[in-house]
Design a protein that fits this description.
With 119 residues, the protein is an all-alpha fold. The protein has one domain (2-113). 81% of the residues lie in helices and 0% in strands. It has 4 helices and no strands. It has helices spanning 2-26, 32-58, 64-83, 90-113. Helix 1 (2-26) runs antiparallel to helix 2 (32-58), helix 1 (2-26) packs antiparallel against helix 4 (90-113) and helix 3 (64-83) packs antiparallel against helix 4.
C-alpha cells in the first residue's frame, strides 16, 4: 500500500507541475481528461492514506506528522483550485501555485522526516 500511495503522490505532483506550466507559460488550462485524472488521483491518495493511517494507529505509532500532512494536503488542494480556476486573475493564479507548491514541498519533507514529536 505504501508504494501505491507514493506512486499516486508522485503522479499528483507531476500533474500539478504540468498544470502550473500551462497556466504560467501560456495562460491556458489543462484539458478535461487531466482534470478528471487529477480528481481521481486525489481520491485514491486520500483512501490509501486513510488505510495506512489506520494501520499505524492500530500499532500505536506516533502519527502527529500524518495530521500535519493532511492539513498541508487540504491547503494544497484549495490553493490549486484557486490557481487553476478559469475566473482567477493572474496574481491569484501565481499565489495559488506558490502556496500549493510550498504545501507539496512540506508534505514531501514530512514524509521523509517523519518527526515523532511534531506538536
Amino acid at each position: 500500500m505504501k508504494h501505491l500511495h507514493m506512486l499516486i503522490a508522485l503522479l499528483i505532483v507531476v500533474l500539478f507541475l504540468y498544470q502550473s506550466y500551462l497556466v504560467l507559460s501560456a495562460n491556458r488550462r489543462a484539458p478535461r481528461p487531466v482534470k478528471i485524472i487529477s480528481h481521481m488521483l486525489y481520491a485514491f491518495l486520500i483512501v490509501s492514506g486513510a488505510v495506512m493511517l489506520m494501520q499505524l494507529m492500530s500499532v500505536n505509532a506516533p502519527v502527529q506528522w500524518v495530521f500535519a500532512k493532511i492539513i498541508l494536503l487540504f491547503a494544497a488542494i484549495s490553493s490549486s483550485v484557486k490557481a487553476f480556476n478559469n475566473h482567477s486573475t493572474p496574481n491569484q493564479q501565481k499565489a495559488g501555485i506558490l502556496i500549493a507548491g510550498i504545501a507539496y514541498l512540506g508534505i514531501v519533507v514530512l514524509a521523509f522526516a517523519k518527526p515523532g514529536n511534531l506538536f
